[in-house]
């Protein structure tokens, strides 16, 4: 998270404060409380969509 905070800080110096640009940042900088679960859920949804394209399923 410290690295993501640094990236946000550097980006903000050139483009203004825009926290949505960086994911994985600390909550006090606009991060999401449920980020870890949301990332895993997103991987599941993407995997299901890909498998669906090939007529397969996760289970």
Overview of this structure, please?
The mean pLDDT is 92. The chain has one domain. It is mainly alpha-helical and 59 residues long. InterPro entries: Aminoacid_DH-like_N_sf. Keywords: NAD, Oxidoreductase. This is Glutamate dehydrogenase 1. One of its GO terms (molecular function) is glutamate dehydrogenase (NAD+) activity.
Strand content: under 5%
Poorly predicted regions: none
Estimate the mean pLDDT confidence: 92
Termini Cα gap:
33 Å
Helix content: 55-70%
Number of helices: 2
General form: elongated
Tell me the domain tally.
1
The total beta strand count reads 0
Classification by helices and strands: mainly alpha
For the biggest sheet, the summary is: none
Pattern of helices and strands: HH
Radius of gyration: 16 Å
What tags apply to this protein structure?
59 residues, mainly alpha, 56% helix
Give the helices and strands, then pairings:
Layout: H1 2-15, H2 35-53
Protein name: Glutamate dehydrogenase 1
GO cellular component, one term: mitochondrion
Organism: Trifolium medium
Short characterization:
This protein is mainly alpha-helical.
